[in-house]
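Data availability (excerpt). The following record was deposited with the supplementary files.
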Amino acid sequence: MRRFGLIIFVAILAVIPLIPGLSVFWITLLDNIGLAALVAMGLVLLTGVGGLTSFGQAAFCGFGAYTSAVLTTRFGFDPWATLPAALAVTGLAAVVLGLVTVRLSGHFLPLGTIAWGISLYYLFGKIELLGRHDGVSGVPPLSIFGWSLIEPQAVYYVIWGFVVLAAIATTNLLDSRTGRAIRALRGGRVAAEAFGIEPARVKLLVFVYAALLAGLSGWLYAHVQRAVNPTPFGVNAGIEYLFMAVVGGAGQVWGALVGASLVILLKDALQRVVPFLFGTSAQYETIVFGVLLVAILQFAREGLWPRIVALFPEPPPPAVDRDAAPLAARAKAATQPLLAVAEARKTFGGLVAVNDVSFQVKRGEIVALIGPNGAGKSTTFNLITGVLDITAGDVTFAGQPIGGQRPQTIAGLGIARSFQHVKLLPDMSVLDNVALGAHLRGKAGFIQGLLRLDRAEEKRLIAEAARQIARVGLAEHMHKPAGSLALGQQRIVEIARALCLDPDLLLLDEPAAGLRHLEKAALSELLRHLRSQGVSVLLVEHDMGFVMNLTDHIVVLDFGTKIAEGPPAAIKQNPAVLAAYLGAPE
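Predicted structure:
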């Protein structure tokens, strides 16, 4: 169905210039929409999907436009031969700026993009080679087999051909292992790293890709307008591009076309209608434009594309190839103990959060870490998984020291975890959320995803996710948005995601919280089954009935210090534990 819709869309695009009586003005407007849609599409990926707000994309258009303009006018290059150079220069600039920018977070990130957007705008106007503020004129038009594409109707097909190809490639990318990693950025650094994702690398990757789409738009712009100056590459233009992405539907690839069309058509209409109604004494059209955009966003806060899609029957969810070959199983380490924590200590300034704690987890054993709130249980989890650096002591896994290692490295060794506060991507399906857990078990990268060369591996990753969802009893919820599930079900989804890593050691932070009695019984049965298969489990839990009936060994913490450990029967009778946590009779 999606392929059929794409064919219809391309057919309509092809016919538009052939409509009798359609003026050059409207074709020119459509050309401008296509150029803007390329930039907005990059922002959909960068901001709408990856959560990285950028106001400086117009500057990347400038890199592409100026590179081609200088090479063609000063050095006699053929316009088509300058495309690789324009993309290379844009990509290099994006890498340099991205290495600094993507390390920022919160409000510092958009402020950073505004800062370098303004700087580059004024830089373009100061360089002699670029013609200063006068720019570069006499840029030759594109040509194909000697046919000059100087007319708007002729270059129309080139612009929209690139737009369609970019939309297909971007859609392919989002429907891939790399695309899920980009989506995971919205869930926060800690969760992404726990699956083996490199957030800094993924942020830089999506930043550069969005810049390349803007550079492509700039390259086309130079040969359509046949003159380049700094004016179209300032922060104001960058803000408009961001408006297009948001109004069309942040996170919606085809929404970029809707947003670009709306903003450009609306601006053109207002520039003709508002002066006629109110006169030319002031720029009332700018005021009306702002008011209308706010009204549109109030009407469709998720953008216009989701509203458009909602008018049509919802397509069936993609089929899961249940016959896909299973992913290679992890070679299980025979080392005993599997996990050893020795004199682990973590301080935050003068606060000792974990005070020289030692314990072990053997293969095929379920160990509970219990204690009152603030006892240091989650901090201990974070020391084991590399979220926090250990102050002193040692943590070894399968005989290998892991204290101070990166979370991605630790995940690659076979340690998976869930979180005290559920860290799922609520708008993504349960299936895609769980597939994130198998990230390290795939190899396909950015280019394979972009060109859809990863289909065989992708089928195996999705099939593995489906198997784990069925394993935890949530098969009927597989295609639902994860945020639509109850809290207890979301915790089970996190366990399925962790199991996708094929772990040797499973760390579960309050897995029974929010579960009903029968759900807790099913979770206990699942954990016992995992234990019988050689998977070790270390869990933090406050439900003592759940803990006592399930675990082989219990470690008790109080104010960061281990006060007891042993089998459940002994812990129930331990005076120190009764006084500190379980409670003693009056």
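Summary of structural features: The chain has a mean pLDDT of 90.
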